[in-house]
Structures are given as structure tokens and as C-alpha cells.
Design goal:
Layout: E1 2-6, E2 14-15, E3 18-19, H1 21-38, E4 42-45, H2 57-72, E5 76-80, H3 87-90, H4 94-97, E6 102-105, E7 113-119, E8 122-129, H5 134-138, H6 149-158, E9 167-173, E10 175-177, E11 198-200, E12 209-213, E13 219-220, E14 226-228, E15 245-251, E16 257-263, E17 270-275, H7 277-282, H8 284-288, E18 294-299, H9 308-313, E19 319-324, H10 327-330, H11 340-344, H12 348-360, H13 366-383
Helix pairs in contact: 1-2, 12-13
The protein binds manganese (II) ion.
Manganese (II) ion is lined by residues 8, 10, 48, 82, 84, 189, 214.
Length: 385
């Protein structure tokens, strides 16, 4: 049994004001390409199909095209709702679509939806558990106390009658951790309750494979058979060093499996460049790189620049963020001693040289000293009645 594991598509997402729709179409074409070369039996999408509960028209079109192409490949498609999706909207027409081997698990109703596929080694049961919150499932378990995410997941997984002598795959979209190990987080994941949603992965360890969504960096959680596929694109600058991929899983006979990452290449990469404006604009090396990449530009110029964004965008049109890193921005303003008595005792010249040192990180040259003294004297003379 071979299947693709993907997640966190976030179709329709804008990153720093730039629409990712063309990028998304681009990586979806690569995923279809992998299906044509690898011939998996199924594809699993572990939540966060859309970026918003009410996706825009273009986002719906992009997903419609993707899902139609997946169905045309005649593989089984299994989808769960993530925390960004509206469960009801996502599962629209899902009963009709089951005939097309497309299974969508939207809202959790007390039973985990399962899909059974088989191969020469027997059955593989896929358990499609959409994103849940403790309060949203509490009503389904009257006799149980459900306070935490751990409680909620324990109750929900117990509803599944799992035959662990056969092969089972859990598909889930939650924040799982292995005790004591900090997972790789990304800024594009929205984490509304700051870690309280963490669930101990022990609860799912007996499944033969756990196809997770929610974290945007591809990673294993405590064991090789428990994995986040990660988002197919970089959705924040915290991800510039991540390799984006889809995960290919091969389940052979019970206890025997293979996992590999199939790399995804964006239309334009997201990266960071740093240096002085002149150099960055004329840089020989950057001439080789894609100027349309999504960039965070860090300017190290000492001098004030007029319209830095306009200047940098004339060469790199897709600059997403502009930051400055020089002695002026590095100085810690809070460290300045603002004691009013001390300040009033200082001369104008002394005040200015302190200010200069704070802003630039070094003392004035003799030439600068002479200039400022002259200016202060002229200023004072002109002020006098
Ligand atoms: Mn997500």
C-alpha cells in the first residue's frame, strides 16, 4: 500500500500581502506529477486545505482544479478538516463524492470516519479524525470529564474499535509532541492558546502510520512512523531554511514500512539577503539568483537612504519585508541615561556627542567634532536677541 501524505495547503493564503495562489497551483502540478510517476493507491490531506473558514472564489477554484485532477488519477483521496477549515463547508457533497473515492471528514460527530483499502498483505484502515477541541467534543461524552486536549483525544480515540493486529493509519490535525522534545515550529502556524493544545503522541503510537497536519515544518514526532508532512510552500520567513516536500509512505506487511520525502520546488523561493543597498542592487551573485524570489532584505547601510523600498523593488519586485541592521538600529535606546538633572547639567555639545555615540555606536571624528561645534556656535549666535 503506497500513499502520499500532504497537509497544510492553506489555499488562498497571502504572505506579507502577496497572494500564494500561483505558487500553490505550481506545487499542486508537481504533486500530480509524483502521482503519475510513483503510482500511489491513495493521497491523504491532513487538514488546513484552505487558509480561512470562508475561502475566496479563486481559492475555491484552485482547490477544485486540484481535487479534480486527483480524482482523474483514479486514486483514493482522504481529507480531514484542519483548524483553519470550516468543517461543514469542507464536507459539502461529501456523500456524493464518496462514489468517486473522495472521502472528506469535516465535523467530528462521535465516530471517527474510516476508509478501508486492501492489498496483497490484507486491509489497511485509514481513520480520518478532523481537528477537534475539548469543548467541541465534550457534549458527545456525557460521563467523561474532558478538560484538556489530552482528555479529548483519549476519549475520541477510544471510540475507534481498532484491530491492531491489522494495519491502521491515523490521519489527524492537532499539535502533537513527544514528551521532552520540542517540535520545529513556524510563524505561519496559528497557535491560539500558546501550547495548551499540545497532545502527548503516546496516544497514537500503536498505529502503523500517523499522518499529521498542523505544524508547517516536515518532521517526525518521536518515531519514524509518526510524521508531519509540513506545508507544501514556505509561508513565513521562519521557514526559509526548511525543505518543503510531500511524504510518500509505503506500508508493506505489518511492521514493515518505508517513508520518503518528495521535494517540492516553488515558482519563486523565499529567502533573505543582507548588505548595503548599492551592493545588493549591483551584486554579481544576485544576478544569478531569481530576482523575483520573495525576499526579506536587511540593509546594513550607515547612511540614511531615501525611499529604500522603492530602490530595492526596482531590482527585486517581490520584496516582502525590509529591515535595517546597523549601529543606529542596534543601539539600545532604553540604555540611555535620561536623568533630567544630569542632562540639564550637560552643554549642547556634550548632549549631541552622547546622542551621536548612542545612534552610531562610535565617537565623532575630529572633523565631525569641529563641524558640530561650529554649527552649535552659529545657532546660538543667531538665537541671541
Ligand atoms: Mn496549518
Amino acid at each position: 500500500m503506497k500513499f502520499l501524505h500532504l497537509s497544510d495547503l492553506h489555499i488562498g493564503k497571502s504572505v506579507n500581502g502577496f497572494s500564494m495562489l500561483e505558487e500553490q497551483r505550481h506545487v499542486f502540478r508537481q504533486i500530480i506529477g509524483y502521482i503519475q510517476t510513483e503510482h500511489p493507491d491513495a493521497a491523504v490531506i491532513a487538514g488546513d486545505i484552505y487558509d480561512r473558514a470562508v475561502p475566496g472564489i479563486e481559492a475555491v477554484r484552485v482547490f477544485d482544479d486540484f481535487i479534480t485532477e486527483l480524482v482523474n488519477e483514479e486514486i483514493t483521496i482522504m481529507i480531514i478538516a484542519g483548524n483553519h477549515d470550516s468543517p461543514e463547508r469542507l464536507s459539502y457533497a461529501s456523500r456524493l463524492l464518496a462514489d468517486k473515492k473522495l472521502f472528506i471528514s469535516g465535523a467530528f460527530d462521535g465516530n471517527i470516519r474510516k476508509v478501508v483499502l486492501s492489498d496483497n498483505f490484507g486491509d489497511v484502515t485509514f481513520w480520518l479524525l478532523p481537528f477537534i477541541k475539548p469543548f467541541s467534543v465534550r457534549g458527545l461524552f456525557n460521563e467523561r470529564e474532558i478538560e484538556t486536549y489530552d482528555d479529548a483525544l483519549a476519549a475520541v480515540i477510544e471510540t475507534a474499535v481498532v484491530d491492531y493486529s491489522a494495519r491502521n493509519v491515523l490521519v489527524s490535525h492537532q499539535f502533537y509532541t513527544k514528551s521532552g522534545v520540542l517540535p520545529i515550529r513556524s510563524e505561519s502556524e496559528i497557535n491560539p492558546i500558546g501550547g495548551l493544545d499540545a497532545i502527548n503522541i503516546n496516544i497514537a503510537e500503536k498505529f502503523d502510520y500517523v499522518a499529521l497536519g498542523h505544524l508547517h515544518g516536515s518532521q517526525r514526532i518521536g518515531a519514524d512512523h509518526i510524521r508531519y508532512a509540513g506545508s507544501p510552500l514556505k509561508y513565513s520567513f521562519s521557514e526559509i531554511r526548511q525543505e518543503k516536500s510531500v511524504t510518500l509512505v509505503e506500508l508493506n506487511k505489518k511492521g514493515n514500512f518505508l517513508v520518503s520525502d518528495l521535494p517540492l520546488t516553488p515558482l519563486h523561493d523565499m529567502r533573505e539577503i543582507k548588505g548595503e543597498l548599492e551592493k545588493l542592487v549591483n551584486d554579481e551573485k544576485s544576478a544569478l539568483a531569481d530576482k523575483e524570489d520573495y525576499l526579506r532584505v536587511i540593509l546594513t547601510d550607515e547612511e540614511e537612504i531615501i525611499d529604500p523600498m522603492g530602490k530595492i523593488r526596482s531590482v527585486y519586485p517581490n520584496v516582502m519585508a525590509l529591515d535595517f541592521e546597523n549601529p543606529r538600529t542596534n543601539s539600545d535606546v532604553s540604555a540611555i541615561n535620561l536623568d533630567s538633572e544630569r542632562i540639564s547639567a550637560l552643554s549642547s555639545y556634550e548632549l549631541f556627542s552622547e546622542f551621536f555615540l548612542e545612534m552610531r555606536g562610535f565617537v565623532m571624528s575630529e572633523e565631525q567634532e569641529a563641524l558640530i561645534k561650529e554649527l552649535l556656535e552659529t545657532g546660538c549666535r543667531n538665537e541671541a536677541p
